[in-house]
Amino acid sequence: SQQGEEDPQALSIQEGENATMNCSYKTSINNLQWYRQNSGRGLVHLILIRSNEREKHSGRLRVTLDTSKKSSSLLITASRAADTASYFCATRRETSGSRLTFGEGTQLTVNP
Amino acid sequence: DTEVTQTPKHLVMGMTNKKSLKCEQHMGHRAMYWYKQKAKKPPELMFVYSYEKLSINESVPSRFSPECPNSSLLNLHLHALQPEDSALYLCASSQALTTGELFFGEGSRLTVL
Fold it and tell me: Does A97 contact B at CB distance below 8 Å?
């Protein structure tokens, strides 16, 4: 079963707007990661946040983690058409850290 | 060099064929992974190798047979596949088994007729 559930499943915005995607998970984690996938391509790692961290930034990306609610969010600021992709959260569980399990993903479309 | 290279990019095979997917990384990573991804779904873990030894097999049918000849190479041997096995097969590597990010290849698109 999938560890992560993401919402929304699909998000369509205009260039320049911010995009927020959410991820919830069920068990205690070691870390949570976000990946991006362009259609039919491999996944690209965006950012990793450890269970003892609450917020992390990388360029136009901001990730938050709330372990009490077992949830994370990914914010992309000032979006561009090139940000159009699927975004997946992935978790490494505390008890089974060798498995990286992916959520269902959010399909982001940024309209020019 | 931060690439994971997968070949072939596309593969069409019949249900009686035997074929192999190949994956190579030169980042010195000691963990390598096979994932299967169906359209509009997340990647699903199939196998994990750590230091060239099979660490995880997620109850994958025996018609899929992984092999790790050395620390840089990972193969997936395919035999007697079914049409429902058609998917994007993704290889990934990571520095260690239990921490850190995964580096993915571009995938091999498999179609089983």
Answer: yes
Structure tokens at A30: 């070691």
CB contact under 8 A, B104 and A42: yes
pLDDT tens series, chain A, 112 aa: 345 678 889 999 999 999 999 999 998 888 999 999 999 899 999 999 999 999 999 999 999 999 999 999 999 999 999 999 999 999 987 766 678 889 999 999 999 9
**Contact criterion met (CB < 8 Å) for A100 and B45:** yes
Residue A7: the pLDDT is 83
**CA dihedral over A66, A69, A71, A77, signed as positive or negative:** negative
Task: Give B82: exposed, middle or buried? Use CB within 10 Å, 0-12, 13-18, 19+.
Answer: exposed
Cross-chain Cβ contact A45/B103 below 8 Å: yes
CA distances to A39, A79, A81, A85, A103 from A16, rounded to whole Å, are 22, 5, 9, 16, 26
B105 contacts in chain A (CB < 8 Å): 42
**Inter-chain Cβ pairs, chain A and chain B, closer than 8 A:** 60
Residue A87, exposed/middle/buried by CB under 10 A (0-12, 13-18, 19+)?
buried
Each residue's pLDDT tens digit, B34-77? 999 999 999 999 999 999 999 888 889 999 999 999 999 999 99
Task: List CB contacts (< 8 A) between B107 and chain A.
Answer: 40-42
Q: Which amino acid is at B20?
A: S
Q: Minimal Cα–Cα distance from B76 to chain A, Å?
A: 17
